[in-house]
Amino acid sequence: MKKNRKLITALIGLLVIAGLVAGGVVVFAQERAETAASAAGAAPAADPVPVDRAVIAKGIVVPAERAALSMAAGGIVAEVLAEEGQPVVKGDVILRLRDERQRAALAEADAAVLAAQAQLAIVRAGARDEELATAQAGLEVMRARLARLEEGSRAGDVAAARANLQASQAALARLNEGADENLRAAAAADMASAEAALRNAQAAYDQIKERSDVAMMPQSLQLEQATNAYKAALARYSQLVAPPKADQVAQATAAIRAAQAELDRAVDPATAADQAEAQAAVRQAEAQLQLLQAGARQGEIAAAEAAVAQAEAGRQQAAAALGDTELRAPFDGLLAVLRVRTGEQVVPGAPIAELGNAGAWLVETDDLSELDVVRVRPGQEVRLTFDAIPGLQLRGVVERIQPKGEKKLGDMTYMAVVQIQEGDERLLWNMTAVVELP
């Protein structure tokens, strides 16, 4: 046994020595070859020819039609009308902001449109028959006044003017004197009688006011009637004894001044200046009548039409502002993400929802190296497998390749989009997919 162990040990030693000798020979031979090549100026060996291999890249599954949704306007969420995972149809309202100010602005814009349209209709219609009749009557008055001035004052005009002045003065005097003494005395008697009746009715009511059915007793009705009668008598008496109101006195005084001026004109003959003034008034009335008869000018109609257009544009802006308080689905799809709830503040432009149409899927990969991307072309078929669905293998076609690469972990990589040619109901947004190009 001891002899066998010694023999094995000796053999192992010999093998080790032989290996060391062989390694030294190889190293020596390589050094001699390198030295000879360097001395001879030989060119370095060519790069190895690349071996064909499959292009494999990882990507994610995304809907072919998808969108990150945001609000055009900011505000407080009033109601949420859709839930995550719920299918929606194009035009469905997903959420709505508080819109009191926008609705008020739209109502104001609607009123402005109606007002502008009404003004346009008035301008196009021209003067009404009543306006023409009024203008014609005013012209006749001015002509009559001019005729009187040219004719001179007459005795009858003077007498009529004087009588009008006296009547106006008498009216002011009666106003200042107040009601007739007999009327005031009668009103005072009526008030005293009503007051006595009220006292009697009150006394009768006091006798039964503690009863539970007091409202049904005749004394209650008698007290109410007596109270109303007393208030009416008091008001009539107060009106008769009250001093005249300031506006009544001013009106009566103005009537006296007008009557005096009319008398002065009747007494004094018209001057040349008076006649010139009357002639100018006649010409003005004639021009006004002709303007009404001619109707609206084209420029006035155009201005009214422009006002309508401006009001309608304002209404469109108000309607658009109201529409901006709603988030609507831009296409049919599945609401995958919704990041807000009722009562929360929304910032305009910030993504708050994601919508995707699961009718068609893509795989997006940014894992193509610059060595791999040169072997990929749009239209090439690829094989797709999925980490989450073992055994599922689908066919895909390269749709496009992004021409600009980006640095990723120190390597230059390129984005490619692959259309999935076959559907599977188990596919979900952002699942990991492996793209293999044989």
The termini sit apart by: 61 Å
Strand portion: 15-25%
Shape: elongated
The share of residues in helices is 40-55%
Radius of gyration, in Å, reads 54 Å
The CATH homologous superfamily name of one domain equals Efflux pump adaptor protein, beta barrel domain
Pick out the low-confidence regions: 1-8, 14-51
CATH class of one domain: Mainly Beta
Average predicted confidence as pLDDT: 83
Mind describing the biggest β-sheet?
Answer: 6 strands, antiparallel, barrel
Count of helical segments?
10
In CATH terms, what is the fold-level topology of one domain? Elongation Factor Tu (Ef-tu), domain 3
Strand line-up in the sheet with most strands: 1-8-12-10-9-13
Overview of the molecule:
The chain has 438 residues and is α+β, with helices and mostly antiparallel strands. Among the domains are: 1-40; 55-76 and 351-437, Elongation Factor Tu (Ef-tu), domain 3 (Beta Barrel), CATH 2.40.30.170; 102-126 and 298-323; 194-242. The chain is built from 10 helices and 13 strands. The protein has helices at residues 2-40, 100-125, 129-151, 155-177, 181-208, 218-241, 246-267, 272-294, 298-323, 370-373, and strands at residues 55-70, 75-80, 87-88, 93-97, 326-328, 333-338, 345-346, 351-369, 381-386, 393-401, 406-408, 411-420, 432-437. The strands form 2 sheets. It has a 6-stranded antiparallel β-barrel. A hairpin with a 2-residue loop joins strand 11 and strand 12 (411-420). Helix 3 runs antiparallel to helix 8. The relative contact order is 0.18. Residues 1-8 and 14-51 have low confidence and may be disordered.
